[in-house]
Fold these 2 entries.
Entry 1:
Amino acid sequence: MSTSVATRKRRRIPLVDRIALIICGLVLAIAVIGPWIAPHDPYAVNLSQRLLGPGPEHWLGTDINGRDVLSRILTGARTTLLATAVVLAVTVVIGVVVGTLAAVGGRVVDEIIMRITDVGLAVPSIVLALGFAVALGPGIGSAIIAVSVSWWPGYVRLIRTVVRETMQSEFVESAVALGVGRRRLILRHVLPNSLDILYVQVTLDVAAVMLVISGLSFIGVGAQVPSAEWGAMIAAAADNVTSGWWALVFPGLAIAITAIAFSLVGDWLRVLRDPTLKQEN
Amino acid sequence: MNVARYVARRLLLSGVVFFGLVVLAFVLVTVLPGDPARAAAGRNATAAQVAEARERLGLDDPVLVQFWHYLTNVLQGDLGNSVFTHRAVLADIADVLPSSLELVAAAMLINIVIGVPLGVLAAYRRGRTLDVMARIVALLGATMPVFWLGLLLQLVLSSRLGLFPLYGQLGFGERVPDITGVITIDALLSGDPALFSSALAHLILPALTLAASFIAVIARTVRSSMITSLDADYVTLARATGAGELRVVVRHALRNALVPMSTILGMQLGWMLGVTVLVESTFSRQGIGAYMVDAVLQNDLYAVIGSILVIGVVFIVTNLVVDLVQLWINPRLRDGLAPARPAAPEAVR
């Protein structure tokens, strides 16, 4: 970014990407140990302490119910990130299985799968997720199912494209010429050489999925009150924006910083995988 | 592929996607947990009323028969009734849709006016400060939660600085004649400039909020196709003929970026209509997004599914129109030289 490509040493990670990597690591660590390092009880209502500004006792202030904002952000990281991780795990598995099927299953199978993904992509994920959320009832579980249902078509398309490309390569031709069976060809030769793109796409998608999950919680169909989920915290703070900006600003910053860090790392991985992109970007 | 065959195939594809959308809607209203008869009869209905609703909705029929009824109803514009407003869902949506279309149009305008020049400049000054700054703007737009951005703009620009109205579509006590349903147009038609400027002032913040996450994608698309075309021989040739730099960039290089640009903008139009669910309620606008959020919170199943169908249809139609317009923009498509539409970048999701 700041240094030009020519002067940069080989294999040295650019400063911005290094910072992004550290933030990603920190956020993941907080998702694991957050509840233990929280200075206060994230759920303890204390009406005499309501809407206190940031200070030495409450670094990021308190919310309308007198709960410590910092403790809630630290605790809530787990909810938001775990939900995101489950969505991505589910959609990646569906994507690999169905996408591979589309790529190698012949024209009819391919056509059917592609038209189904068209339907999934014809409705914005947040809208489709609302449909599932209302059918399944509110809750973080429904939100996870809802977002997964709206997210898998993207992975199916990605895997289908990559597997098709791999099928064209010379080593696959050689394997076919050597008489490798179809099943073994796909499982042992094609897939292992296709799936590295997933590291990139999953990292890039962390931000997008997280935004949809917290959006659902903001609307009121994801994580429910009094959960410390970041989107739900913003929704709760929205009603008294003017009297306590900190309860609104800090959970949003948590989302934005996490999203930026994962996006940057995703972009870095993308260039690492395909250095020709460096010229373009 | 000749033009007629291409158009026929494209129409057929749109039909297939629409059919799939109706199947999806049907699954959501009938197959998933929850009793549609109870949903239709209302939360406080007696057992007899629920049984009556079950009979009326044909819920004891075989699934395929039920689907056939559902499909024919949808095709006739019957999306069911809202439990909350006690009106036909389509009539409800027809009332709120103009407000959302106004918001989406304004957001699209902001998107194009900021995103396209940003992409062009970033490509032109590739690797320089301006390019890096454009990247930062794009990154921020794409990663900030839309609903949070809306609240922040409200907090700073409206509440603290008083530059814009806090929420609503018009000031307190202001009314426009109901001509088109689009407030700004109706205000303009009423001939009252103060009313028009009030409507516009109420529109700016929600439109900016809605546009923010889309600017990044269009700027990136324009940038990458501009980079390709700026290096192309015909651009070098145009420069060699002595054409001015502005003319070279706009008339020659940007022209070639029109095809990917129009594809993305077309998709974004449909997506923006969906993202209104995260914007309209915050600004107390009465559009399809706010309608859908209310419906979700009141467990108004038919209203939610009806909104999904309408948003899906808008998306299908805009994409169809964009593809057909591209036949006209891009002559290579007519001759069958260019492949079909490019894949959507993941970021539009």
Entry 2:
Amino acid sequence: MEEQDKILNDVTQGDYKYGFVTDIETDIIEKGLNEDVIRLISAKKGEPEFMLKFRLDAFKKWQKMKMPNWAYLKIPPIDLQAISYYAAPKKGPKYESMDEVDPELIDTFNKLGIPLEEQKHLAGVAVDVVMDSVSVKTTFKDTLAEKGIIFCSFSEAVEEHPDLIKKYLGQAVPVADNYFAALNSAVFSDGSFCYIPKGVRCPMELSTYFRINAANTGQFERTLIVADDDSYVSYLEGCTAPMRDENQLHAAVVEIITMDRAEVKYSTVQNWYPGDKNGKGGIYNFVTKRGICRGESSKISWTQVETGSAITWKYPSCILMGDNSVGEFNSVAVTNNYQQADTGSKMIHIGKNTKSTIISKGISAGKSDNSYRGLVKVMPKATGSRNFSQCDSLLLNDTCGAHTFPYIEVGNKSSVVEHEATTSKIGEDQIFYCNQRGIDTETAIGMIVNGYAKEVLNKLPMEFAVEAQKLLQISLEGSVG
Amino acid sequence: MLSIKNLYASVEGMEILKGINLEIKPGEVHAIMGPNGSGKSTLASVLAGKEDYEITAGEITFLGEDLLDKSPELRAKEGLFLSFQYPVEIPGVPMVNFLKTSVNEHRKHKGLKELTAGEFLKLMREKMDLVDMHTKLTNRMVNEGFSGGEKKKNEIFQMAMLEPKLAILDETDSGLDIDALRVVANGVNALKSPETAAIVVTHYQRLLDYIVPDYVHILYKGKIVKTAGKELALELEEKGYDWIKSDNEK
């Protein structure tokens, strides 16, 4: 037993690889949140009137809202006046050629494995890189433009495609949807925009990489993906942050809209700094992700591997409006040390014969708490609809917790909703079996956990899956008690 | 090769092994028989290093070194193999990956180069013939959905891949039909050499028709109460364990 505890401690104290800070001149506005700050952000970005209106409207509504407290999370008070709402690496705002990019920045993203130079890039992945409040570089823009695909920073989209933004912004996540979405709508500074025109299959993976660098700031980015009739895109999102003792707030919004027969796959590997082993520091991650399958037979699938953040509050959801539309949610959420996660999905069936699947694999270690929370709602008119949910929890010791909060509402008699749930502790017999074959406990746990999460990992694009497997190994190995 | 001296072991405060003495030399096959609850599986688990058992007295040396000091994985890499009575399932982990990791851990320990995927598959095909394993088994997850017989064959297959110096077969015959029994026994016999040894833990004589032991030990209430040649197994088959019990009950 002692030996295992020792391994446990060694490994769970493994360092967060991405915890460095880039020393780069940053333009940060005064801390605090009020109408002037919102006007300032909008002015700094040179936004058109409709955007300012959108922000002010959100802010007004947000002021009347309260922080949600229904999640199974202990959230320390967050002083929103102590945060700066805009931080941008200077010399920006956007680099057209590599020569203009600050070498510090290139170096930073090389260290993170996200080279900004296109020729060095993973073949077939276009990246929009967001550091603190702004997008610093989007690769492969021209290649994509040839197919009519728009992939650019949100700011650029506001400038160059205001009609599209006006039409779709806030459609999936209305400004007053919830406290954090409203806050994001008021102060968001950048993010990615993607439009896939009718009948186009996007030839490469699109990706946004988020990096928090500056201290005492929050990151509030916004992603909007619109897939027109018969189009397809696979979208990846990655994120990291420096190690700091203070907590930092990240409140993002992602909106996806699919038209007739369009399909969007959205994959996330969330690796924000989780805090140290005593629970000090780490990112508070409050994210609203929602997609609307507006067209018939359209499909949205969310796949997430959540290993980072001190607190995760996130429910990627699908509103299945179009008849025969399909929603999927596949999740692996890992918590260790003092991390807390309350995550899951909402599937709202509105159209006829709509289908949804929820696969959630929670893995808890240390003194962490890991909750699945999900809603499956079938409206009366959504006849012939189906949902299958499977929520599994794996506990690595006796000091962590796993919880499941499923909500099911079915409004008609021809629909079928299934829910399966299991909770298990990692088997000491399994570990011993591996040991007896010469495999040490660390490697054994990595193998067992990856096996457990396999169903979800298999849904990730290849390069991402490898990354995610390594991440699981780092986050958890040896956490058996 | 293996020397057990005056070994006492208990689990959750209950003493199960009460003074075991056993000497095993290279090239030998030892059968350990005995009624249920006599401590046979405990002995196998203690040798492999399962944590649940506390060694309260005695010593074990393996290849001249103290065995009890070593972690289970180190014992394995130094050539001690346990064929489990109940091989555990590991969902989502392909047998091929599991075994490749295992083989390469063994090779690293010996200072050998790790096998490439190609070399590994070649080795695997060779060894599969030995135990009549089907590719469909190695393509599945570790023991997941295997029948009782398939699990046991899989243990012998892993043994063939790892080429241990000392193999401990913990009731490998239980739950096997006669054909599977023969396959398993052939596998074990094919691996016999003057440098390797085996401990065969079993209830029944029938496995010993195929794997012929040099010695048969009877374990009863945590002690070896009788040791003889292979004819002892036949005697047990005929008379049952009652005469052992009455001899040792005072």
